[in-house]
Amino acid sequence: MKTTISRYTFVIYLVAWIIIMLIQSVAIGSSSPLTSHFWQTPRGYYSVWLTDLYLILIFYLNYYLLSRRLFGKRAFKPYLIFVALATILGLFLPMILHALFGWGSPADPQGKVGLSTLGGAGTLAVISVGLSLRAVKEWIALADKTKAQEATLRKQEALIREKEAQIAALRMRPETEMPGGAPSIVPPPVPEPNKIIPDALPE
User: Fold this and answer.
1) Amino acid 2: pLDDT
2) How far is it, in rounded angstroms, from Cα 125 to Cα 46?
3) CB–CB of 29/35 below 8 Å?
4) Could you give the C-alpha distances from 93 to 37, 49, 51, in angstroms and in order?
5) Predicted structure pTM score
6) What is the rounded CA–CA span in Å between residue 119 and residue 127?
7) By three-state DSSP, how is residue 180 classified?
8) In this structure, are residues 98 and 164 in contact, taking their beta carbons and an 8 Å threshold?
9) Cα–Cα dist 105/67, whole Å
10) What is the chain's mean pLDDT, rounded?
11) Cβ contacts of 118 within 8 Å, gap of 6 or more
């Protein structure tokens, strides 16, 4: 059941990311009369789509791995280094793709490209969102754990009070009313000193 839910969740996330990327592409194509739509010149959108995939990768890498492990170990310096390197790579990613494959921008599919605001600011945005979601999730988990511990503690305290009441009730009962019907101990008669019992006289 849990595996099935995880598969459905993965599919839902995948469809959501695809829809977001399509909406972004349509918005870019409609932003200026000089910009062509992605179905007209898809080559101009390759770098945009790869930048989007890069941001999605950074989001999941930060959310599931780095924010939990590095912050859990209080390794703030390595985490800041990761943020800086990821942001720099996001800024230069379209230029790297242009140098490797000759991909341009939606406005100029064959021309040169500059620094990517989408890559740089988007990297900082997805890292911030992932870190915030991780903090909220950890806070909820901590609150649930605290509630469970408080419930267990209340049960233990109630059990201790019940046992103490039983012990107090047992102490207030007389010995003859103790559980199990414990008989009272009566000491044997002690003979008087220097008293001789005479033998029975013959009739």
Assistant:
1) 58
2) 21
3) yes
4) 21, 11, 7
5) 0.69
6) 12
7) coil
8) no
9) 33
10) 80
11) 48, 51, 90
